[in-house]
């Protein structure tokens, strides 16, 4: 290869081989051994374990908790989808998260989820919230009740899917609008900084958010103000029924964040250990005053954008062409290919390989989770329905309101 002046130049990595001493993993190992501060210069976290080894250092019970959380999200949805498809009395609905479970689970496992509200980390979600909610630790039976408009639900039955919220675990909530959640989350991050708190704010947003102005103003402000904000972009390739390349010029949306000077990571969103690795790194940096991080998790959703058209009771995912539903916006083979890299299977295999549990114990855990979710639905769907008046709760101020003083 020649440089601008026509001189022959050779690059040590021309053959594509990076010796371990020069690779990021080798560098991290060296830095860990010498205790040197690690300054991050590259941005890719791949399934080969290229970034960090935080997950490997976790005790078995924390890893098993992650596996359990992935399963809870999966079985909550399988059960809810079956209700939607098979029970004419079921009123609930959801934007399903199946296929993406490892993202919420890996990120929330790196957060502080227990303790007083003034100390826990806060999560802001989107229109696809139930996975984020479960990973943050909400009470599943009351969430099930909420999603079916029951008066004893998590939010009294007036929030349903699109506005579920449980501040007691730092799950600030779902948001039906594409755009604002990152701005609101950065407001919390600003408050943490202003108060001198070491809390962290996390926002989950889809690839579609790139096209909203909020995406760009959030990242700019987060960098300028050095906010403890972690922006998790769940790139599941589609916004509603359009491929993300229709509205975003970047193959890796993380490249956009790098333009704002924010450390950005692209991670395999199907592997919970890799998601945890990058999340832990981001949380540590934010707590230490190092500012924001952008994480782009490459992932995929198994169902339609909304609800379960094209899906069959008892089956995972929606396939095929259904003239009454919009399931033909993506190739069926694409769905099946992503299902080959299922987050449940990947987590299970890694934990078996690491000797955390064997296949028998993994199966028992799955049975325990199925029973827990079945119980949650039994309780939730036996609760009283909310009344039409409940729908007006928190819309108007109740009682008398003092006349506003001007001047
Ligand atoms: C401001 C605004 N415009 C449009 C919509 C309609 N809408 C709901 S979800 C969605 C697509 C979101 O795609 P993405 O951000 O990739 O998230 P995903 O659904 O893939 O999880 C759109 C356009 C909306 N809710 N808000
Ligand atoms: Mg999307």
From TrEMBL:
Origin: domain of life: Bacteria
CDD domains: TPP_E1_PDC_ADC_BCADC
SUPFAM superfamilies from the UniProt entry: Thiamin diphosphate-binding fold (THDP-binding)
Iron-sulfur in keyword set: no
Swiss-Prot/TrEMBL keywords: Oxidoreductase, Thiamine pyrophosphate
Region (Disordered): 1-22
Cofactors named for this entry: thiamine diphosphate
Reaction catalyzed: N(6)-[(R)-lipoyl]-L-lysyl-[protein] + pyruvate + H(+) = N(6)-[(R)-S(8)-acetyldihydrolipoyl]-L-lysyl-[protein] + CO2
Entry-linked Pfam families: E1_dh
Sequence ranges assigned to domain Dehydrogenase E1 component in this UniProt record: 82-305
InterPro entries linked: DH_E1, PDH_E1_Alpha_Subunit, TAT_signal, TAT_signal_bac_arc, THDP-binding
Gene3D superfamilies associated with the record: 3.40.50.970
Function: The pyruvate dehydrogenase complex catalyzes the overall conversion of pyruvate to acetyl-CoA and CO(2). It contains multiple copies of three enzymatic components: pyruvate dehydrogenase (E1), dihydrolipoamide acetyltransferase (E2) and lipoamide dehydrogenase (E3).
Record's protein name: Thiamine pyrophosphate-dependent dehydrogenase E1 component subunit alpha
Source organism (scientific name): Albidovulum litorale
């Amino acid at each position: 290869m020649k440089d601008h002046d026509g001189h022959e130049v050779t690059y040590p990595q021309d053959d594509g081989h990076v010796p371990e001493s020069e690779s990021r993993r080798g560098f991290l190992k060296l830095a860990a051994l010498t205790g040197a501060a690690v300054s991050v210069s590259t941005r890719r976290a791949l399934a080969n374990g290229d970034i960090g080894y935080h997950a490997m250092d976790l005790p078995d019970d924390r890893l098993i908790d992650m596996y359990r959380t992935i399963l809870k999200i999966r079985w909550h949805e399988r059960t809810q989808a079956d209700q939607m498809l098979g029970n004419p009395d079921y009123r609930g609905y959801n934007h399903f998260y199946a296929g993406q479970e490892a993202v919420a689970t890996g990120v929330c496992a790196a957060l502080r989820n227990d303790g007083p509200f003034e100390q826990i980390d806060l999560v802001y979600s989107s229109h696809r919230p139930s996975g984020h909610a479960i990973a943050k630790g909400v009470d599943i039976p009351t969430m099930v009740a909420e999603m079916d408009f029951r008066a004893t639900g998590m939010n009294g039955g007036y929030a349903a899917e699109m506005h579920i919220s449980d501040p007691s675990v730092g799950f600030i909530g779902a948001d039906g609008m594409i755009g604002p959640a990152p701005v609101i989350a950065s407001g919390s991050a600003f408050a943490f900084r202003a108060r001198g708190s070491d809390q962290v704010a996390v926002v989950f947003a889809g690839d579609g958010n790139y096209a909203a102005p909020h995406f760009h103003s959030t990242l700019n402000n987060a960098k300028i103000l050095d906010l403890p904000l972690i922006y998790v972009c769940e790139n599941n390739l589609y916004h509603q029924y359009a491929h993300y390349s229709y509205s975003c010029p970047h193959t890796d949306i993380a490249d956009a964040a790098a333009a704002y000077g924010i450390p950005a990571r692209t991670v395999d969103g199907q592997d919970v250990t890799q998601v945890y690795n990058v999340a832990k790194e981001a949380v540590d940096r934010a707590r230490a005053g190092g500012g924001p991080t952008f994480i782009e998790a490459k992932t995929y959703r198994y169902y339609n954008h909304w609800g379960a058209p094209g899906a069959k009771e008892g089956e995972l995912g929606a396939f095929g062409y259904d003239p009454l539903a919009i399931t033909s916006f993506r190739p069926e083979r694409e769905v099946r290919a992503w299902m080959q890299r299922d987050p449940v299977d990947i987590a299970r295999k890694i934990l078996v390989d690491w000797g955390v549990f064997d296949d028998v114990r993994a199966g028992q855990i799955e049975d325990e989770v199925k029973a827990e979710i079945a119980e949650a639905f039994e309780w939730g769907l036996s609760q009283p329905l909310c009344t039409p008046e409940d729908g007006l709760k928190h819309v108007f101020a109740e009682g008398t309101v003092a006349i506003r003083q001007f001047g």
